[in-house]
Amino acid sequence: MTRRLAVIGGDAGGMSAAAQARRTDPSLEIVALEKSEWTSYSACGIPYVVSGVIDSIDELVARSPQEHRDRSRIDVRTRHEVEAIDVAAGRLDVRDHGHARTIQVPFDLLLLGMGARPIRPDVPGVDLPEVHGVQTLADAASLLRRAEASECRNVVVVGAGYIGLEMAEAFVIRGARVTVVERGAHVMRTLDMEMAAPIEAAMRRIGIDLRLGVDVTGFEPGTVHTSVGSLPADVIVLGLGVEPNADLAAAAGIELGVRGAVHVNRRQETSVAGVYAAGDCAESWHIVSQRPVHVALGTVANRQGRVAGTNLGGGYATFPGVVGTAITKVCSTEVARTGLTEHEATTAGFAFVSATIDSTTIAGYLPDAPAVTVKSLAERGSGRLLGAQIVGGQGAAKRIDVFATALHAGFTAQEVFDLDLSYAPPYSPLWDPITVSAKALLAVL
């Protein structure tokens, strides 16, 4: 008998799983349910649409619903929102918004790919139309309509994480006056404090009004209220991060894990046999800390989806885990991190040492050699690398991939120092910043 795989969610986790399941088992019947009108898109590109660098959100779509139908024989149904999961009966209750009706969709296998949703502060006025989270293309479309309908003179970004800072820069390019309100002592709390200082300086250089140590207390039309006064705002963007969109799973009795994400095993299977999860709604395993984590990144979602799809199609695959590698650019300042920060290493119970070095991304004698700062951590005693952070000019951030590879391999600081890295003056000093960082760790160890 033909088995039916139902997929909830049409973006990275869901559609990568669906496509891989099709490749693994060509006989599967696959139906994918997506509540918006888009599938398989790059949400990371949204700030570039807002700034005007990219003309349309449609350019962010990697594969349309029709392309999934034609190429992979996946029955993609957009504007279909799953409202309930009955795992015992093998049935989904689905709201078909196109026909204003509720239907039932049976399944033999199920993939949860609901993604994540922006964290919304519990303050008055958070549901006003000028307050926007930015996680999906539907979010982006709503934000763009608001920006175009208003004069968009004053924009307030609440939170200074990756998306908050990218959106702040996007609106500066768009010509708005931008204020970023962050309750913490520094921006990008996924970095250690001293690594955030160059980012804050770069933000202020392009005119962003950065308010640190300030709480948002409420919203009113045209106004953001904070612990130190009120700010005018035509558009308000939430940049507080995301949380797993796992309410459907919880209501169905499927076990949740860290930060309320769907708990999965190494094969991406949930606590219910035949039900798998991938992407931002699911938890991951951190290779360094050896703990479950929630990492909302498209790279992780696609890799988890591929593993889940292989298993759903009758094959065998496991997800090895993550090391928390992330990268971005704020103005001309490149930012990257991998592994554990000092706070994360302490929480995980490691005794560690750290070292911070300053260098350049190319030979220092060349004109305008971009500066770079590298911070790295190693376990006391063993010398095993625990994490690294990089902030600098052009050519800085992608060096994080060497550290990420070293973390996957379990390298010590000595082994990182011994790496045979490339050298030519236009690309690196004779001693690459990675090598210098490892040498500094060895000195402390």
Structure, described:
This protein is of the alpha/beta class and 445 residues long. The protein is built from 12 helices and 25 strands. The strands form 7 sheets. Strands 3-2-1-7-18 form a 5-stranded parallel beta sheet. It has a 5-stranded parallel beta sheet with strand order 9-16-10-11-12, covered by helices on one side. A 5-stranded antiparallel beta sheet has the order 21-22-25-24-23, sandwiched between helices. Strand 5 and strand 6 form a beta hairpin. Helix 1 runs parallel beside helix 8.
Please report the distance between the alpha carbons of the first and last residues: 62 Å
Biggest sheet: strands side by side, in what order?
3-2-1-7-18
Radius of gyration: 23 Å
Strands, count:
25
**Low-pLDDT sequence parts:** none
- Estimate the helix proportion, in percent: 25-40%
Structural class: alpha/beta
Average pLDDT, all residues: 96
* Largest sheet, strands/sense/barrel: 5 strands, parallel
Number of helices: 12
Overall morphology: globular
Share of residues in strands: 25-35%
